[in-house]
Amino acid sequence: MPYINLLPWRETARKELQQQFLAILGMLSAAVVILLFLLSVYYSKQLEGQQYRNNYLQSEISILDQRIREIRNLNDTKADLNKRIELIEQLQESRNLGTEIFNEVAGMVPTGIYLTKIEKKGPALLINGKSESNNRLSNMMRNIEKSDLLEAADLDSIVAGEKDAALLSDFTMTVSVKKYVVEDKGDKK
User: Does the keyword section mention Phosphoprotein (predicted)?
Assistant: First the structure.
């Protein structure tokens, strides 16, 4: 008689295959877990390295920002000093301006005109005086227009003299000074 196996070999074979499948599945899941752990460690190290580089760059940027602020402060100080130097140079150039104005006015006043008051108001001179004739006054205004120091002569008023000095007329004139120093804040020197 032939050999007949009555044992449930198919079930055992199926169980063995199932056990092999579960073992392979367990090994693969363990390998995947280990691989994920290794990837996590690798990327955390990469992240730590990048964070270290970012912190280093941030500290260097803050140092450079501080240096930039110092440079800006130095530039502002330099600009202030340059303005002061320019103002001092202008003042140095115009230190004799009062004397020059008096010399210029003395040379421009023709005979027959008598100055009673010269007042400086900012960049302008207010001149009061007496004149024997209007022609002499117009000659004085022409002389002022030819001047290198004075300009824009403007005759404000001419008043005929009183009874006792009927020959002389009172006049008021405004003249601008060309060489005039102005500070930045609008103050006039």
Answer: no
